[in-house]
Amino acid sequence: MMSSEDEVLSRELDIYIRKHLHPEGIKLRDFLNLGGQYGAAPNIGGAKWALEFLLKNLELTFSERLVEIIEEKGRKPSEIYTKAGITKTHFSKIRSDKDYHPTKETALAFAIALHLDLRETNDLLRRAGYSISHSHESDLIVEFYIKKGIYNIDRINNQLDLRGHKTLTNWRKIKD
């Protein structure tokens, strides 16, 4: 049974989703012939130089940035991975493999555990190859709670579960 505060948030969330959900976005096929329409030809030499430059100047990976954020916030890794619903073994794997690729739910759970704002959350997600999309109701649910400054994984998981979405964690009670 939901508390009256959770019921109010649930109604606000319904309104937020109706306002922001855009299931149909721009499709790749809309851009397939764009270069040909404007007579653009690829510049192979420039592309090679650009690729070399990008490879030399890679930004931090998801796991590198995650560890950096934990240190910047002066938090204990054990506190963060516990709040995120991640085991010590799993966190050790993430920390030791700079190229570790988490699920979107794991990345979001860390963002919530670290109390990241929307910009910081999107930055962390991007490093794992994800983003918060207004085409997915589950993303809007997480975005809603972040914008409200409510970083309680259980409450977020409850709304995800109630609406038929995959939860961020295995959804056991996590203390704030």
TrEMBL record:
SMART domains: HTH_XRE. GO terms for molecular function: DNA binding. Residues 65-121 form the HTH cro/C1-type domain. It comes from the Bacteria. InterPro entries: Cro/C1-type_HTH (IPR001387), Lambda_DNA-bd_dom_sf (IPR010982). This is HTH cro/C1-type domain-containing protein. It comes from Selenomonas ruminantium subsp. lactilytica (strain NBRC 103574 / TAM6421).
